[in-house]
Design brief:
mainly beta, 2 helices, single chain, 13-stranded parallel sheet
Length: about 425
């Protein structure tokens, strides 16, 4: 997902002899790619909607790539054949601009069920589904990758793994729209029956979660003792939190939540951290019903330790930039964040008071001044005033964030908030 435009190159229109070998390589690569899309190699099988697509997926003679032509494929599939390191089983679209759609109309089961390691699902479309029918449910299988898929009008969860412990799951550049349940759910609630380790959830677009009571309706949920990175996602209009993580009993298991845009939670905060260790940085949280980020001692487990909330930008959240709901010890740091235009007339603060074990430093409250260049139009670049820049000059401040929301490098004296000047605009439309 490209969230800002690239800078123009120098010497526009000029000829550079050094480019000749590179151009030759690019044209040759394009020819090879085009050839393989038209003529599948021997280890791949191209099929159409008239095929029994699930049988082809599970048949070893079909090779390691199953390429689906455009059209509508009927029925569900239990994927029991996988690949191996360096040679996964790939189930992909022939043409990403004409996605094959998997249609499943029953009210039981799931569309795809995965029971194998090293499986890649790429460029397919799922939905609508009825009732509690999920899109892709991983029953078992390490190193599963789900990318560039579309999930429309799902009755159940789009992507879920909560049966057996897994590792190495990647969910990347998927689009989930108008979901009647949580969009992504990884790990088991008690943190004991199963965990999801080294998960990467990045650059997904989630818009519209309207879960039925008593369901909460999360965008992304990473359960207790499940760990990984949640990065670069755009999450809009959820019922519950856009992102919620529950922490880990192992103090060395770190969760990273960075570079996400989370807006419009109707009943909660944009990002809820139920336990640590966690690093929450460079996120933008806008117009959520509670706060931009919330620290919640979920289940009174006492896991809010090693929690670092830094360089986040909050705008028009109802109650505060950050709220803490915890009677027990909280340990970590809240630093270099910006909160602007808190909505609640009764809100007395944007940042909580410092307490034993929790350092609060270098945060900016902009209820009375303009902090951002043009936040109504997606530009959260701090205005050039001394009160918003250079929080790293504060004595003793811990600084680990070397780049901003857009990937721009931060200097030793960086700006508060998620965006470092010269900044840019957040684009809320996926380009995949």
């Amino acid at each position: 997902m490209r969230r800002f435009s690239k800078r123009a190159t120098t010497n526009p229109g000029g000829f550079d002899s050094k480019m000749v070998p590179r151009l030759t390589f690019i044209f040759l690569s394009a020819f090879i790619d085009a050839f393989f899309f038209v003529v599948p190699p021997s280890w791949a099988k191209q099929i159409g909607p008239e095929s029994s697509y699930c049988r082809e997926i599970n048949d070893p003679s079909s090779g390691t790539q199953i390429i689906l032509e455009p059209g509508e494929y009927r029925g569900s599939c239990q994927i029991r054949r996988g690949g191996k390191p360096g040679a996964p089983l790939v189930i992909r679209a022939l043409d990403s601009k004409q996605r094959p759609r998997i249609r499943y109309d029953r009210r039981d089961g799931n569309v795809f069920e995965i029971y194998a390691d090293y499986v890649v699902v790429q460029g397919l479309e799922f939905g609508p589904t009825n009732g509690e029918v999920d899109g892709i449910r991983i029953f078992s299988g390490d190193h599963v990758r789900i990318e560039e898929c579309i999930f429309n009008d799902m009755g159940g969860i789009a992507i879920v793994a909560n049966h057996a412990s897994i590792t190495g799951l990647i969910a990347r550049q998927n689009r989930i729209q108008n979901s009647a349940s949580t969009a992504m759910y990884f790990g088991c609630h008690d943190g004991a029956a199963c965990t999801a380790s080294d998960v990467v959830i990045e650059e997904n677009f989630i818009s519209g979660v309207s879960a039925r009571p008593p369901q909460v309706g999360y965008g992304i949920q990473l359960k207790l003792n499940s760990t990984g990175t949640i990065r670069g996602n755009i999450i809009l209009g959820t019922k519950g939190p856009g992102i919620m993580t529950y922490g880990a009993t192992n103090p060395g298991a770190i969760i990273v939540i960075e570079g996400n845009y989370v807006s419009g939670s109707r009943e909660s905060s944009g990002i809820v951290v139920g336990g640590g260790p966690a690093k929450v940085r460079n996120n933008i949280a806008v117009a959520n019903a509670d706060s931009g980020v919330a620290l919640e001692d979920y289940g009174r487990r006492g896991l809010l330790r090693n929690v670092f909330i830094e360089h986040n930008s909050m705008f028009k959240n109802f109650h505060a930039g950050l709220r803490i709901t915890a009677e027990t010890h909280v340990q970590g740091e809240v630093s270099a964040n910006i909160a602007a235009a808190t909505v609640s007339p009764g809100a007395a603060f944007s940042w909580p008071a410092e307490r034993t074990g929790l350092r609060i430093t270098g945060n900016k409250d902009c209820r009375d001044v303009s902090c951002f260049r043009d936040p109504e139009n997606g530009d959260f670049t701090p205005v050039d005033v001394s009160t918003l820049l250079k929080p790293d000059t504060l004595p003793g401040r811990r600084a680990e964030t070397s780049a901003d929301y857009f990937g721009h490098p931060r200097g030793r004296q960086s700006a508060a908030g998620a965006v470092e000047p010269p900044g840019g605009r957040v684009v809320l439309v996926p380009d995949y």
